[in-house]
């Protein structure tokens, strides 16, 4: 099976601006309808990208949508003022194949606007399956198309209005070569006999349900591992919940409302009044002083909770425990996981596909922990059924079942 050339390409030709220039931002119903008509008149797949304001806003909504189709050109759409007027655009593009890079990042926000593809091609995921070591958009465009994209504004606050001209240039370039990149990635996949595998993965991403909210998200507060008392965890939980409600209401990223470090400091100090609270880092600042009563009330709720309502020091496991505890809790399971990981590593090398794309690592862990009733006599059909129930695609099971069935039984 051939693998793409991983050597560094010769100097790529810089692409500093769209060939046809940066299009205007469309933000009226009439402009959206006109763009929809032009897109309908175009041909072939549709290049799609979206810019969010991660790190600045609470929501994951799209603040700019970039579209490009052969025969129609490039369009930059501000969806915020025309959220209720995107029907014509949805009618024009929802029946097309969309080409995105890292589609799972943008599809949820676009779906909120009623924009959903009938078919999907993900150039980033396709690059992984084709064995590319670097799968960022700029790296793949440089290697496969010989062009150097101007990058640098992906982490900007795209809720800013008006959007700076330099940002719009960057945004338009994100779809300038996406259709050509799709064809190059498809050619690489075809050459390696992986196109069907990729099609299954693209359809999986396209039809994936939104992830369920993670349980006890407050436990992800940075620095929480330094706390040793359940009462402190209760304070963290109350402060995190108060911050989350405020962030949601204001559509501001939670860390911009109150950084994690301030929550940990308050849980450690447990101030009893506003004066004590304001002596802590951040809480004495001008932006925080107006919320002093809310923060103190949250701290008080955590400080006075009945012991029976205090959170445990460790989060209850939904599935296997952390791998570093397996050897102590179940040495046989730890040995199974070691053998299974080695088998998956061999498959990864043979097919030039990252091991995490061959099979979800969590699914492998669950299989090895308690996924089968009898590990002494493992039936391939049992492994296949477990993987299928866990969402593994047919191509993944075709590759992995026999290897895992051979690796799971005790070796002695």
Automatic annotation (TrEMBL):
Span of domain HRDC: 229-309
GO molecular-function annotation terms?
3'-5' exonuclease activity; nucleic acid binding; nucleotide binding
Give the highest taxon in the source lineage.
Bacteria
GO BP terms: nucleobase-containing compound metabolic process
Identify the Gene3D superfamilies for this entry.
Answer: HRDC domain, Ribonuclease H-like superfamily/Ribonuclease H
Note one Pfam family from the annotation: DNA_pol_A_exoN
Which ranges form a coiled coil?
none
Segments carrying the region annotation (Disordered) are 307-327
Q: Matching InterPro entries, A to Z?
A: 3'-5'_exonuclease_dom, Exo_C, HRDC-like_sf, HRDC_dom, HRDC_dom_sf, RNase_D-like, RNaseH-like_sf, RNaseH_sf
- Descriptive protein name: Ribonuclease D
